[in-house]
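Late entry, pyridoxal-5'-phosphate complex.
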Amino acid sequence: MTDFADELAERLEASRAQGLYRELRPIASPQSPSIELEGKPLLNFSSNDYLGLATEPALKAAATEAVERYGAGAGASRLICGSLPPHRELEAAIAVFKGTEGALSFSTGYAAALGAIGALLDKDDVIVIDRLAHACIVDAARLCGAKLRVFAHNDLNGLEKILKWAASRTQSRGVAGRKSRALIVTESVFSMDGDHAPLREIADLKDQHGAWLMVDEAHATGLYGPKRRGLAEALGVSERIEIQMGTLGKAFGASGGYICGSRLLVDCLVNLARTFIFSTAPAPAAAAAAAAGVRLVQSQAGEERRRLLWQRVAEINAGLKPIHASSPTSAIIPLIIGAESQAVKAATDLRERGIFIPAIRYPSVARGQARLRLTVSAAHNSADTAQLLTALTAAGLPRAPKESPTVSRPAGAP
Ligand SMILES: *Cc1c(COP(=O)(O)O)cnc(C)c1O
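Prediction complete; structure with ligand written out below:
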């Protein structure tokens, strides 16, 4: 046992030496603009609760009612012990909201990615992902056994080259007797940079080369498009995406994940997605809260929240110019620092000034690309954004980037 302890201690020491050590900070308050972190009141710019729904009375009431009616736990996988009303209602609500034939909910977005990709691909297939795709996509790609190819971030030429190569090897029938396939997977709004994928052009390429497309809208659902369905809606490509994915834990204010698309896709996942089949269904309260979140996003109140969010984002971007070269059209504003230890120092400095923005380091982003990841919520008010800008200025942030971050600005973005 001492060997085990010594080795773990050594590993942690190595991570500390590289400025990569992470620890949990106790928080005493719910997610909202004002939090109490490690006993200290701070203004919170760390949460993905973009529309401020995590503490919304309608969501809390839905969760409470579900606990009273259906209890605290779901008992087993839904294939084993039955499918409860909160789960069925949630999926119906997601499908209506997204305008798809069906939807399937998972315990997390992470599990949704793992389940869906694993269900659709095996070693005869090819999976093609953007270099900056979320860890759950990377892990799913590795686990599913398909040939993994990575294209440079938003690089359409690189993607096309891979698709041409893939088309030449995916025509034949594999061992299973079915046609092998290439699946492209990308985020729509990237989680650590806030920039957008060129979804129209990617959809064109997948059609030209007979591939399939899966889009993770974790940071876009609720925020973009006439019906707030996501960036795919804003760019008019929803119908061309075979597999749409998202989380219920960000703009929807609850927890869980989902895949939506055709009825056949949903039936396939119920039969083949291992994270759905072999995992206890989400707590009824989580599903009920998420369904209430989906309903709220669709309502006039949802539109008002979105309007407030973009207003706060605009205030912050206006205050950050001109040093902040990019003006990301998302609720994620990365302040690139570079060195890991410098990013941690900057975050500590800001906490001392009453502002909480987390330092994001490897492996969440590439080494030497450490940053403060500032996220904005509709729950912030203009006094909050003013206080943020004052603290950033006092801390000498943002610093002029050594090279401008890659940020694309597709038409149709807000
Ligand atoms: C947060 C996130 C997920 C995972 O969703 P969870 O519900 O938190 O598991 C997936 N993809 C992206 C891009 C994310 O940012």
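Residues 300-320 form the longest helix (21 residues). Will revisit in the morning.
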